Amino acid sequence: MPVETEFNFVSKGSKDVSNFNKKIEPRKDLYQTSYQNNNNIIIINKIDSQFITKLFIYFIQQFDMQHRPIVHCLIRKYILNSKRNPTKIFNQILQCDLRRYFTSLIGFCYEFGIGTIVDNKLAYEMYISATQDNIENSLGLDGLDATLRSNTTLSVNNIETLLSPIFLKSYRINNHFIGQFCLSSMFYYGKYVKKDETRSFLLLSTLTQEGSVRAQVTLGECYYEGSGIKKDEKKAFKLVASSAKKGNLVGKFLLGYCYQKGIGVEEDIKLGFQWYLEAAEGGNINSMHRVGDCYYDGRGTPKDDKKALEYFIKSAEEGLDVAWTDVGFCHLNGVGTEGSIRDENKAFKYYLKSAEDGSAYGQCKVGLCCIHGLGTKFNIEKAIYWLNKSKENGNTDAERLLSEFIIMLI
Q: SS3 for 34?
């Protein structure tokens, strides 16, 4: 159960973020419209205002539904599937008069390089800006969120609805929460700031006390890992189980993990599978992949290779790039394929797709295929290229294979 640890820290020394809470002059070269809300005129870009607002709503929804490491892939995919340029969208968010509502998204773009270069300093400052918007949350972090978490919200095309008082308040509440959550992650990983797991835990604990179910899930992970607090598997299980029963999909995934591994509770692989399946059906992508694993291994459910392949494909199509390597594996070995036919060409096709989507494991697989001529022609240059890409992305196997391969060539 790897910690994705992610809270309520306000820096006293941040000096560059105050302007994000001030009104700016709108760009004159963009076609604009205005909307009056409680005697305040909000000027927005007519062409992209709906998209930018819906992008933030989508960001909120996925942040609640998914494990944090996959969210940046989904944001990129959402922008590209809408046939928009990530760089242009990012720049328009910076110019938008509503940007003070979206500082957590801006920080997220800086942290993961969405439409801009990676800049952890600016990411940190944007997250700080979000936490400094201390809106009174009378409906609770996970109460008003229901306004935006409905799947029908993204189909709303009326700008007056998207900028209505209840929506604007919800943007602020969610922006504040996500900013704190992401800030905590920076402390956990030591991004820009000094690594501090204790501070991470305390910030996360604060969010949980404020009523955030999503933060409660990650707090449970901290207890499991002993991150910033003494390791306590029973406490971890209690927090995760509570979040799952409140409906959080990441909590359901982790509850399945606890039952299948016997963490803080007696092992029950069948019940664990049911929690994975429930989370997958709700839209959690990691759970879709884990259900595929269970069907392949026959863990908690009868072995079913066709269903395994089906769930691997589903999780890959939804945005889990590494899942394409499992699809490739199935085609390479005839697992769940029509007539159990092995197909090296299809296997390489899916390995390549995983590699191009950024999976270090997929990049390593493509490098090996190029070395062995598996589903493609033997190609030294491409083998070195993909193994090196995998190495740069942190795959230690690729580093070892690259060294061995180069020695062979000498």
A: strand
Pairing of strands 40-45, 32-37: antiparallel
CB atoms within 10 A of CB 278: 18
Show which of 208, 239, 262 is a domain's final residue: 208
Q: How far apart are CA 146 and CA 63, in angstroms?
A: 13
What pLDDT, in 10s, does the model give residues 329-360?
999 999 999 999 999 999 999 999 999 998 99
What is the pTM (predicted TM-score) of this model?
0.84
pLDDT, tens digit (0-9, with 9 covering 90-100), for 375-394: 999 999 999 999 999 999 88
Residue 320 lies in a domain: no
Q: Where residue 390 sits, what CATH number does that domain have?
A: 1.25.40.10
110 in any annotated domain: yes
Indicate the DSSP class of residue 400: H
Q: Measure the CA–CA gap between 43 and 100, rounded to whole angstroms.
A: 13
Q: Which long-range contacts (CB under 8 A, 24 or more apart) does 252-255 make?
A: 252/276, 252/278, 252/279, 252/282, 252/284, 252/287, 253/67, 253/279, 253/284, 253/286, 253/287, 253/290, 254/1, 254/217, 254/220, 254/221
CA 76, CA 56: separation in Å to the nearest integer? 12
Helices assigned H by DSSP within 226-340 = 233-245, 249-261, 269-282, 285-297, 305-318, 323-333
CA neighbor of 91 nearest in space, from 128, 116, 57: 116
